[in-house]
Amino acid sequence: MSAKRKINDYFSKQSKQIDEPQLSPNKIQITEKIPEYHDQVFRKHSTCVYHVTSVVKSDQFLNIFTKKQPSIIAAICEDRKVQIQENRKKLVPIIECIILCGRQEIALRGHNDSGKMCVNEELSNDGNFRAILRYRAKGDQFLKLYLENNQRYKYIGAKIQNEIIAACGDIIQKKIVEKINAAECFSILADETTDVSNKEQLTLCVRYIDDQNNLCEDFLKYVNIDSLTGASLSSAILNGLTSCGVQCDFLFGQGYDGASNMSGKCRGVQAIICEKYPHALYVHCAAHSLNLAVSTASNIKPIRNCLGILEKMYTFFNTPKRSSVILSEIDGCDFEPKVKSLKRLCATRWVQRYDAVNDFVELFPFVVAALEIISEWNDSSATDASILLKAFDSEFLISLQVIKNLFSYGLLLCKQLQSEQIDLMEAVCLAENTVLALKDIRSNTDEEFKQIFVKSEEMAAIININLSVKRIAKRQTNRANPFTDSMNNATCEMVIEVYYRTTIFVPYVDHFIGQLEARFLAHKNIFKGFEAIFSKNQCLNACELESFQNLLEFYSPTINKDNSLAELKIWRIKLLQNQIVIKTALDALRVCCPNLYPNINKLLKILSTLPVSTSTPERSFSTLKRVKTYLRNSMAEDRLNGLTMLAIHKDVIVTPDEVLDEMAKKPRKLEILL
């Protein structure tokens, strides 16, 4: 082929690739080759507009293809990316301020938090959010320019606050739900309370094992409810879990208090949920069980009267004028007590009951001195103080020391039951140990009560009285009247120590032991099937085998019944040979390989997940009181849940970029999706 033909072919191909019909009506050198010896056509074609344009475009195409220069579309996209990044940069400090307020439980809005925002001048109380944003803008020129310009959409209004707060709550919730579903085993913890706006709030918390074999109890959300029936509450619980994305097929436990609408065997919440999810075993809150045991045992008349006087004493001194009298007595004393005020016998804070009794005993001399001073006043307080002074008799003093002594034995159990890391096995063991300690006291009542009696005499000396027995009749029906060998039949005088040991100490110990055994019997029965996993004996006895087979039958088909018995025997041999000491189900789970013992591992995970107490829901109520106050009582549910998630889950990181991506799921005037 000649050079001329090559050139002709070249022009033809170039113009053909970049062809614009409106500029090239002639097909020669575009769709057809140039005939030979047509030089005039070649010269004419080389000067045509469409050829020159095609050459330029082809050069641009090659440059773009080889990435020597960006395309127009790419340039437009790059400008769009820069604009989006700038938009996101504007919103980052706003989001960070809202997250800060949520983490620190600070109210955001003020009296007038709308309209234009001036960085250098605060016209009125426009809330903490704007105040923090204004303070930050003083050191951030970019933020200052953004807030002070005339742009219509600044994203600092109340509506956008709610959206950012809701986005933060959703992000935290999704991260928690991912861990719950990955565990494939969880228990639901629920409780109900009334908030400051008289709305019934049902709190949903979840107990599960994370991928590091750590026991977690996490708050999920509040659900506003209108009815407290079992059907309504069960529906609210299941719908609340489903709306969060939790897979309810993995529900293996339920933890509530003992109210009939929650624990009822026919139409209670636990019964209705068990109909849908048969493996969701109900466990009565152990902390509530202990509280009920203490409260029921305290119905013994002298004990009940003593606790009533303590409550009256707290109410009497719960005013600045009267409490200042105690403080002045403490200041004038040679030694300073550890506490300076009385505590209330709280109905829900179980540890505080012991603290209330212990603090009163420590402050007793100052309380007596304060009551004597107040009884000389010329107002109604004097009468009340005189009545309270007369309540300090022998029966009160001995009952007070008995309560202090026995409450101390329940203190350790009470604190442990409120821990998130305790499992059902450890709770049952602690309850049994407490009962054994109380039974030891019962078998040595003479020695134990002797110490109590001596301390009571020391308190009696402070108020200048001698311990004595109340008036006794031969046929007494309304008060204890024991007859002992120490009684003188002629004068009907009894040994005082024997009388109070028989009428107060022994009945209270017996009642306390009986209540603990009865209240924790259900927890022990639940744990009974799992006992075979923790035995180090190589051979299973008949009782263990029967209990374990019943356990397998209950959790079938989640647990493979065919392989589980063989796994159990090999597992027990491992414990025996390696001399592994297991104190809790969580300890066993950490040494149980899921690949070697899949069924035993699953049973241990279920046991660890079974609820022990509802302390986590109770703690969420404390957060509710701090977040939704009387000044913030009109807060909507989404805002309440978002702020609560930020306040409780401080360990879950929420970044502004995550919030922006969550907000970008909705169409907005300001483009923020990269």
Number of strands: 5
Spatial ordering of strands, largest sheet:
3-2-1-4-5
Q: Separation of termini? A: 55 Å
Percent of residues in helices:
55-70%
Gross geometry: flat
Rg measurement, Å: 39 Å
Domain DUF4371: 71-267
Protein name: Repressor of the inhibitor of the protein kinase
Pfam families: Dimer_Tnp_hAT, DUF4371
Domain HAT C-terminal dimerisation: 596-651
Describe the secondary-structure layout.
Layout: H1 3-17, H2 39-46, H3 49-65, H4 72-103, H5 127-137, H6 141-148, H7 158-183, E1 186-194, E2 200-209, E3 215-225, H8 230-244, E4 251-256, H9 260-263, H10 269-276, E5 281-284, H11 286-297, H12 301-316, H13 320-331, H14 350-374, H15 380-390, H16 394-417, H17 424-443, H18 445-462, H19 496-519, H20 521-528, H21 531-534, H22 542-554, H23 561-578, H24 585-591, H25 598-609, H26 615-627, H27 637-648, H28 656-663
Parallel strand pairs: 1-4, 4-5
Antiparallel strand pairs: 1-2, 2-3
Helix pairs in contact: 1-3, 4-5, 4-7, 4-28, 7-27, 7-28, 8-10, 11-16, 11-19, 12-16, 13-14, 14-15, 14-16, 16-17, 16-18, 16-19, 17-19, 18-19, 24-25, 26-27
Organism: Aphis gossypii (Cotton aphid)
Domain DUF4371: 71-267
GO molecular function, one term: protein dimerization activity
